[in-house]
């Protein structure tokens, strides 16, 4: 007796189809599982066998063989328990074969027959729709997550017994429904933090507005308590709201990581990830024994904030160089390569020295060698990938006490959105969305300079000893500043401001 069901697993952040074949024949009683299986999949035979027994189904004293195909791709996770159990029940005649056609099944079984939630349901359901399946049977706790994919029925179940009754048409389970448009309409992004909380720091707030408008990377450098972290935490409040497409892409990463739940079927706000400086290289970029996304992928579409930047392990920081350029990260293992998105905005903050008060020699107790050694933890290639470097100065008592109504995040976001719309319209024929993504060829096309602007940039190039990458990044930032002022051309004032954001790092790293 032979039969099969369909299940799926996750590779990177995308689902792939797995065929679960079951054969029950005469011979020595045995339960075999084959198909390049990880240890947790091999253990499924015990979970399935006992779950079937406790659900009232007696396995015959025969040879049971389960094959998970394709056999050349390693199967990981616990989502194969339920499809294996269903394949066995179909083979034994407890469920009609025609009742599982066009059905994809995933779920982990408890020993008492209950079905537990699994990771990666969102990309699996999306893959199932693309493969032509009409319905997916998933754990009840994953039902809302899967139901954000329209045009396919997502059936949430809580026990093996319930699945059998449903597949035998003995009970009716209505497909889960999530009104995605309503989710976005009713989502209120008001938070307890706002740019109006920040007193002073006019230059820093201006730099943040430019950085968000063009999705440029930014570094804050200044004394302790000047407001670097406050500024960083408020950056998401001025970023544009997520589109459905962006939300789906971000939610797929969170689904694979297991960070979605039945109360949160989609990620509706831009991520803000702030890992501690003790984070390992693997936790930051992704990978591990069982490959999964890292912090840079969890920050996709949002902000990756690295506070106390020099305190991070230097090798960990250097690994960021490639994702910052390519906007994704590829993890290669013996059993395959995994690609994770990494299109984030890097925001970093640091003190200028160990004590935090350089170059104020009245307060700084560090020697020149100590300052150089501290700043030397940040390499020039990494600095070149940071478009804007801004100094946060210590604010005075009057600025704190003045009863001034500061500009709110909502007001700043309006200007950011206007600049973003200009970029979307300009690049509608290109494969990019922001000025920060401009390639050298695109820079020649969209960042034309007049004769006086060229002379200004040439003078800055030689005076600041800029690299070619820094040169291109100045032009990208200048393009964003021009967009904020609704200027078709990049003018000298735009270039001057962009050059200033590159000159502050020279103040510290060229001592």
From TrEMBL:
It comes from the Bacteria. Residues 194-399 form the Magnesium chelatase ChlI-like catalytic domain. The keyword ATP-binding applies. SUPFAM superfamilies: P-loop containing nucleoside triphosphate hydrolases, Ribosomal protein S5 domain 2-like. The keyword Plastid does not apply. Keywords: ATP-binding, Coiled coil, Nucleotide-binding. GO terms for molecular function: ATP binding; DNA binding. Residues 407-502 form the Mg chelatase-related protein C-terminal domain. InterPro entries: CHLI-like, MCM_dom, Mg_chelat-rel, Mg_chelat-rel_C, Mg_chelatse_chII-like_cat_dom, P-loop_NTPase, Ribosomal_Su5_D2-typ_SF, Ribsml_uS5_D2-typ_fold_subgr. This is Magnesium chelatase family protein. It comes from Mobilisporobacter senegalensis. The lineage of its organism: Bacteria, Bacillati, Bacillota, Clostridia, Lachnospirales.
């Amino acid at each position: 007796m032979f039969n099969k069901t369909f299940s799926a697993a996750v590779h990177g952040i995308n689902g792939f189809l797995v065929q679960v074949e079951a054969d029950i024949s005469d011979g020595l009683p045995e339960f075999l599982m084959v198909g390049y299986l990880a240890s947790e999949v091999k253990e499924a035979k015990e979970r399935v066998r006992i779950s079937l027994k406790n659900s009232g189904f007696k396995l015959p004293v025969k040879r049971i063989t389960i094959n998970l195909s394709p056999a050349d791709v390693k199967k990981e996770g616990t989502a194969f328990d339920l499809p294996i159990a269903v394949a066995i029940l179909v083979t034994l005649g407890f469920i009609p074969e025609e009742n599982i056609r066009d059905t994809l099944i995933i779920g982990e079984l408890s020993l008492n027959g209950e079905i537990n939630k699994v990771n990666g349901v969102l990309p699996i359901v999306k893959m199932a729709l693309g493969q032509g399946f009409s319905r997916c049977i998933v754990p009840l706790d994953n039902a809302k997550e899967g139901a954000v994919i329209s045009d396919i029925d997502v059936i949430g179940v809580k026990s093996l017994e319930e699945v059998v009754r449903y597949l035998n048409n003995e009970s009716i389970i209505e497909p889960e429904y999530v009104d995605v448009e309503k989710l976005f309409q009713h989502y209120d992004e008001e938070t307890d933090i706002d740019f109006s909380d920040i007193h002073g720091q006019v230059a820093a707030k201006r730099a943040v507005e430019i950085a968000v408008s063009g999705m440029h990377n930014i570094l804050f450098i200044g004394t302790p308590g000047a407001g670097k972290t406050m500024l960083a935490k408020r950056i998401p409040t001025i970023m544009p709201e997520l589109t459905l497409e962006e939300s789906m892409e971000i939610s797929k990463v969170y689904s694979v990581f297991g960070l979605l739940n039945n109360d949160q079927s989609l990620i509706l706000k831009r991520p803000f990830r702030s890992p501690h400086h003790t984070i390992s290289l693997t936790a930051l970029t992704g990978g591990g024994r069982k490959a999964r996304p890292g912090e840079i992928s969890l920050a996709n579409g949002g902000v990756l904030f690295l506070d106390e930047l020099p305190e991070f392990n230097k090798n960990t920081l250097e690994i960021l160089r490639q994702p910052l350029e390519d906007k994704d990260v590829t993890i290669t293992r013996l059993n395959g390569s995994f690609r994770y998105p990494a299109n984030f905005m890097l925001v970093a903050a640091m003190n200028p020295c160990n004590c935090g008060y350089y170059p104020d020699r009245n307060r700084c107790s560090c020697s020149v060698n100590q300052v150089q050694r501290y700043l030397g933890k940040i390499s020039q290639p990494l600095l070149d990938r940071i478009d804007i470097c801004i100094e946060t100065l210590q604010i005075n008592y009057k600025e704190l006490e003045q009863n001034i109504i500061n500009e709110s995040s909502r007001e700043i976001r309006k200007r950011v959105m206007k600049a973003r719309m200009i970029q979307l319209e300009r690049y509608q024929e290109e494969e990019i969305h922001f000025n920060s993504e401009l390639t050298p060829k695109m820079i020649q096309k969209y960042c034309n300079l007049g004769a006086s602007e060229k002379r200004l940039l040439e003078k800055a190039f030689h005076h600041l000893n800029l690299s070619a990458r820094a040169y291109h990044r100045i032009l990208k930032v200048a393009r964003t500043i021009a967009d904020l002022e609704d200027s078709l051309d990049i003018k000298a004032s735009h270039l001057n401001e962009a050059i200033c954001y590159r000159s502050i790092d020279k103040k510290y790293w060229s001592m």
